[in-house]
Each structure stands twice: as structure tokens, then as C-alpha cells.
Design brief:
alpha/beta, 6-stranded mixed beta sheet, two-stranded antiparallel ribbon, 43% helix
Length: 386
């Protein structure tokens, strides 16, 4: 009897390749951010979800930093041709890019190798490279608040937003300075694999999965006055009670402030109002529960503090552009549903809600794909979740 050889095991999918472009004068901190954030995520079998490579515009060799050491970069510009995502960190030796908005020949050649399907991101002043290449014309972008005015003058076709921590414009993403690069990279992990994976990376990196507000809080108040009362205690108190009704006066009383003083101090510290902050925390809580539990939409709505499924559906639609069922389907494609009947019921409710919205407009409107909805929020201001 012939022996039938076993079928070969299917090859595991290649990890998403992130290529970091190291330019002379780079800031070592920014260079390390993509390696730290994208080097942590794993799938259910412990396999890395990303592969991170570092390349130069020249053949492999040393690249100067703004510190008293150089780094050896193991790859040349040809690595960019293999990238799924390209990240350009900040550097202080951009020369004609920073002075006149013009690419050098070797930089133009390197950028020309990037596949048209690749996602491109910049950290801090790395945005000048993308702008000089014409990739930001007609798009919204950000950079360190101290460079925002110059960026706008040099590249008038770019819509520069100096207030946000990062901007996600689909295939092009830009961040503010220094630590905002962490916010941006965590956002990309969240966009690719959901809140649970990004939260795990944040915990291992000992940073919040989201940060409050935008850059405005760092311009005039880089260090809070220790003599002034903070609203941090009220925020911590509220995070432990998202499933309960929370009134503004309740949060103000926790800090022994009037509502007016508390609201002003809260906005100074976080960059957003207490109501906006609470809504974002509840949206993030709902996302986490949809990804990691088998709770029904009604149960998730109650646990996240929205009260009803209709209310949560409206808030997720406003924040992400999708319904709860569509979000769960995207980030739990391989997970078991509690029951087909429950999923069908939730889908019918979502369809009816979409139909009612379409009826009010005089016609039905198809739901946006999740990939488009998540990659074009406006405005993006990362907030914390604990």
C-alpha cells in the first residue's frame, strides 16, 4: 500500500514589514520608538506581527546622530522597496529639505523606491521629508508645535494642525514631537490589530494607551504648577465608574472645586472638556469589550456607560464610522460568536439603525468600510485608558 506523504504545513504569513529611514542628524530616541512599539506585538501563537528594519539613504554603514555617538545601519535604501510601512523619524541635518523644501538627490532616489501601496509615517520634523516629496499636498499634517509655523510657511499646500498629537490621513500619518511618536505608533498597532493588542504593548512599554488632548497643553504649561490642584484624582475616580452615570459636578466635588474652575483646569491639563474625555473613555472601553469578550451589544453598552445599545451605536458611529457589530467582526474575525442568533439580531438592529439614518436623509447610505473609518478620524487626539 503506497505511503501518502503528509501535506506540507502552510507557510506562516510574513510579518508586516516596518522600515525606518535613518537620516544623518537623527534623534536616537525617535529612532528607537518604532523598534520598541512594533517589536512587541505577537499573534495567538507567539509569532511577531511586525518585522522592523532600519535603512539609510546610502549603503549600510554609520549614520550620525545628534548625540555623541553614531549608529550602524545594516540596510541600504533598497530595503524601502520591501516595506509595508515606512517611518521617517526626526533629524537635525535636513539641509535643503528644511531650508528650501527641496529633496537631495539621494533622498529623492530612496523615497522613489517606496511601493505605492506602503503606508508612510513621520515623527516630529521627519514630516519635512514627506512634505518636500509632495506627499502632503492638500493633506492635513502635524509636527512639533515649535516647527509648525515654519512648516506651514515652507509648504503652503499642507494643512498644518499644530494642536494635535498626531494625524492619521489614511496612507500618510504624521506626529508631533518626541513622545508623540509613541502615540502614533501605538495608534497604528491599534488600527492594524485592535485596542487589546495596542493596550498590551502600552502596558509592556509602561506608557498610557492614550494620552489626553493635544499639543496646546504643552506650549504654555509644560510643567503643571505643583501648588495648583489637579484634576487627575477625578479622572481616576471616573475611570473606575464608567458604567455608572457621572455628572460634571460629581467630578468637580472630588477635587473640591467649583464646576467652572474644574472645567477650566481640566481643559488646561488634558486639552479637552470633561464631557469629551468621558465619551472617549467609554468608546475605548466599548472597543476593548467588543474585542475581548462575548458580551452582547446591550451588555457592552451598559458596562461602558452608554446605557443603551442605541446610544453606544451612535457614539461608535461618530468616533469610528462603524457599528459595534462591524467593529467586532473586523477585530475578531477568527473568534467564535456567542451564537449565530445573537449576531443576526445585532446585525438586524444595526441595519435598521442605518436604514433610519438613511431615511432621514431621503436615501439609504451604505456603511463605510472599517479600514477607511478608522484611518480617517477627525480630529485625532489620543486619550488615556487604564
Amino acid at each position: 500500500m503506497p505511503v501518502i506523504p503528509p501535506e506540507p504545513s502552510p507557510c506562516p504569513p510574513r510579518p508586516h514589514r516596518v522600515v525606518v529611514l535613518a537620516l544623518d542628524g537623527l534623534l536616537p530616541f525617535e529612532l528607537g520608538i518604532p523598534h520598541r512599539i512594533f517589536g512587541r506585538p505577537r499573534d495567538e501563537r507567539g509569532r511577531p506581527l511586525y518585522e522592523v528594519l532600519t535603512c539609510s539613504v546610502r549603503p549600510p554603514g554609520p549614520v550620525r546622530t545628534d548625540a555623541d555617538f553614531t549608529v550602524h545601519v545594516p540596510h541600504g535604501p533598497e530595503a524601502l522597496a520591501t516595506a509595508d510601512t515606512v517611518i521617517v523619524p526626526a533629524c537635525y541635518e535636513l539641509g535643503p529639505v528644511f531650508e528650501r523644501g527641496e529633496l537631495t538627490d539621494e533622498l529623492a532616489d530612496a523615497l522613489g523606491r517606496i511601493p505605492p501601496t506602503a503606508r508612510i509615517a513621520s515623527i516630529c520634523t521627519g514630516v519635512y521629508v514627506l512634505a518636500a516629496a509632495g506627499r502632503l499636498d492638500g493633506r492635513r499634517a502635524t509636527t512639533h508645535w515649535a516647527d509648525a509655523e515654519r512648516l506651514q510657511r515652507l509648504f503652503p499646500k499642507v494643512d498644518v494642525d499644530p494642536d494635535v498629537l498626531f494625524v492619521d490621513d489614511g496612507d500618510i500619518l504624521t506626529s508631533a514631537g518626541v513622545a508623540a511618536g509613541i502615540d502614533l505608533c501605538l495608534h497604528m498597532v491599534r488600527r492594524d490589530h485592535g485596542a487589546a493588542v495596542a493596550n498590551d504593548v502600552a502596558r509592556r512599554t509602561v506608557v498610557p494607551p492614550h494620552r489626553d488632548g493635544g499639543q496646546a497643553q504643552y506650549i504654555q504649561r509644560p510643567v503643571p504648577d505643583p501648588q495648583q490642584a489637579s484634576t487627575s484624582g477625578a479622572r481616576a475616580w471616573a475611570l473606575g465608574r464608567l458604567h455608572e452615570p457621572i455628572q460634571l459636578r460629581d467630578m468637580a466635588e472630588r477635587e473640591s472645586m467649583s464646576v467652572r474652575t474644574f472645567t477650566r483646569r481640566f481643559r488646561e491639563e488634558t486639552g479637552v472638556s470633561p464631557g469629551q474625555w468621558l465619551t472617549r473613555q467609554r468608546v475605548e472601553r466599548a472597543r476593548y469589550l467588543l474585542e475581548t469578550t462575548e458580551l452582547t451589544v446591550d451588555q457592552v453598552a451598559r458596562d461602558a456607560g452608554f446605557g443603551t445599545a442605541q446610544s453606544m451605536r451612535a457614539h461608535l458611529q461618530a468616533a469610528l464610522g462603524v457599528t459595534p457589530t462591524a467593529y467586532r467582526r473586523t477585530f475578531r474575525a477568527g473568534a467564535e460568536r456567542a451564537s449565530d442568533a445573537r449576531t443576526d439580531t445585532e446585525g438586524a438592529l444595526d441595519a435598521r439603525a442605518d436604514g433610519e439614518r438613511g431615511g432621514r436623509r431621503g436615501r439609504s447610505r451604505p456603511e463605510r468600510p472599517l479600514c477607511e473609518a478608522v484611518r480617517r478620524p477627525a480630529p485625532l487626539r489620543a486619550l488615556p485608558q487604564t
